[in-house]
Design brief:
Length: 243
């Protein structure tokens, strides 16, 4: 049994994680600890507070007691708003605090794009334009070419969590670009685990979503390889990239 630990801010689309655990169909346990959220807002200042080291440290002990072998900060925007170097510091601090390998969803996206050997991606973001632009900047800092960014102006995670299948598919369609080799849908408040395979079939290319890549990143940190086609192309490639 491999136990993966995730720090998830608030209560929005956390039901993606037991769904992913089930779809993995393996001896993988996904443990989720909810971190405190003093303000639900897709604003840079609020997102930086959400990802503060002391906020993340509060949930680490619970994951360690659960036997987690790796920990992932499961918030895309709570990482990239710090910029590339700041997000690296965030993850290093988390690793020291936990005494475990650690990463975040922001880095998971970059590592997953590399795993797919995609050179150019399109981004479909729920976020307002300024926050979506910061995600694109983060990807570029990681060596990923961004063909286009579609922002949706959603100001809270609660609103994103209300989106269903129709809204997720519409976002992916409008974000896609002919020259993009993959489509990225950041926002861990967006439920996507049930739709990844169907999204890829419709778009004809890999689709990476926040909770999907978060779990993949946890597996990568734990040096586990799991084939789960229902979770998309990312989960059908072996061996996993080691960065």
């Amino acid at each position: 049994m491999t136990a993966l630990g995730f720090l998830y801010p608030g209560h929005f689309a956390e039901d993606d994680y037991p769904r992913i655990e089930q779809l993995l169909g393996s001896d993988i346990r996904v443990d989720l600890v909810h971190t405190e959220l003093d303000e639900d807002a897709h604003r840079v200042d609020a997102l930086r507070r959400m990802g503060a080291a002391e906020r993340l440290a509060e949930g680490v002990q619970q994951l360690r007691l659960a036997g987690a072998e790796a920990v992932v900060w499961a918030s895309t925007s709570g990482g990239f708003v710090y910029g590339w170097e700041g997000a690296q510091d965030q993850v290093r601090t988390l690793a020291r605090t936990a005494g475990l390998p650690a990463s975040s969803t922001s880095f998971a996206f970059v590592h997953a794009v590399r795993e797919l050997q995609a050179r150019r991606v399109a981004v479909g973001a729920t976020y307002p334009a300024d926050v979506a632009a910061l995600f694109a900047d983060f990807l570029r800092a990681g060596g990923v070419e961004v063909a286009g960014v579609h922002d949706s102006g959603v100001m809270t995670a609660a609103e994103a969590a209300e989106w269903g299948e129709a809204e997720v598919f519409a976002l992916a369609r409008v974000a896609d670009r002919p020259d993009a080799e993959a489509v990225l849908l950041p926002d861990n408040a967006l439920r996507t685990a049930a739709y990844v395979a169907a999204l890829e079939k419709e778009l004809g290319k890999p689709v990476l979503t926040a909770n999907q890549v978060s779990v993949w990143e946890g597996l990568r940190l734990a040096d586990r390889r799991v084939n789960a086609p229902e979770l998309g192309t990312l989960f059908t490639r072996e061996p996993l990239v080691q960065v």
